[in-house]
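Fold it.
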Amino acid sequence: MLARTRASQPPRPASAAPSERAQLARLALDAALGVAGVVSSHAGPQGTWVTADREERLPGVLATALAGGGYGVELHLVTEVVPLLPLADRVRSRVERAAASAGLADVLGPVDITIEDVVTPNEVSKR
């Protein structure tokens, strides 16, 4: 499995606090990348599957407002060769738990997982 690390970011000033939408996008991306079998996110062929908020662009995750309130989340992922439906279920469950832990469960709508590419162990080691 590929190990992932997240570079520490300096704390934001209170006036630049991320929106709920950006918070959900960040926690969904972090949760997905923490699931064994997920290699990376994928911003799409034109780089448009991105959530942007002030200073940060989060590739491979879209958090969009829903008509009834809250936000739907789409994750576009690259994975290892593993059973994909169970992997998607684990990712979705982890995102839901992360949202609940962050106090955002009430604004989290559907979490859609799209597997954009599947890579072999040899390809993973080259990334």
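The chain is about 30% helix and 30% strand.
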